Amino acid sequence: MRRALRAPCRLCGNYGQGAELCTRCTHRITVTPWGVSTLSVEGGRIPILWRELYGGPLTELIYQSKYHGVWPIALLLGQQLGSLPRPWMGPPPVIIPIPLSRRRLARRGYNQSSLIARVAAQHWGIPMRDRWLEKIRNTPRQAALGRASRRENLSDSFRARQIVAHQRVILLDDIMTSGSTLREAIRAIRHCGGEVIGAAVIARVGAPSPGRAPQGRRC
């Protein structure tokens, strides 16, 4: 009877103590290394804060949130990202999540990156602005394309609002693969006079940039 009242762990499926994650999986996440890499963009490079390398325990949670309608998991992911050191120096920026197209947002019912950004922004004590950037073209999923096709797929797919002018911005996405999505978002924000000073993601595909080794968990 007690087991029937408890939900299984989101990761391993075992029954824990009534929380979304069992003690064992919570520990796995706690000790998962995080780090900072850099992304080349026109005019230089920007820092990318990532909570894990792709394939870690949080990656499964991303897909549950993204494709299986389990939107509360995005809030847990936001807590994980927000527990890391603030990814900027100087005056506080605003967080802008990578948006979905209107068609995809209507189909899914929510933008998981927006939910992650809202919680992370609360932890870091800065505002989140999810209407300052919009996706104006419904493009095929980036994961279904090769590296060479990703940039072309996203070309001119984002549009920033003029209110972003003179603002310092941290972009937020759930997964970074080739960086094409972030680059196109940066282009749109810069076009309206905004300054993207960095980005934060839950999972980063590939090895860290040279000289940027994964760091330990900081509580």
Provide structural commentary.
This protein has helices at residues 23-30, 57-67, 72-82, 102-108, 112-124, 147-154, 180-191; strands spanning 35-41, 44-53, 94-97, 133-135, 158-160, 168-176, 195-204. By secondary structure, the chain is an alpha/beta fold. The chain has one domain (34-204): Rossmann fold. The strands form two sheets. A five-stranded mixed β-sheet has the order 1-2-7-6-3, sandwiched between helices. A hairpin with a 2-residue loop joins strand 1 and strand 2. Helix 2 packs antiparallel against helix 3 (72-82) and helix 3 packs parallel to helix 5 (112-124). The chain starts with 22 loop residues before the first helix and ends in a 15-residue tail after the last strand.
Summarize the structure.
The chain has 219 residues and is an alpha/beta fold. 32% of the residues lie in helices and 21% in strands.
Strand and helix map with partners:
Elements: H1 23-30, E1 35-41, E2 44-53, H2 57-67, H3 72-82, E3 94-97, H4 102-108, H5 112-124, E4 133-135, H6 147-154, E5 158-160, E6 168-176, H7 180-191, E7 195-204
Parallel strand pairs: 2-7, 3-6, 6-7
Antiparallel strand pairs: 1-2, 4-5
Helix pairs in contact: 2-3, 3-5
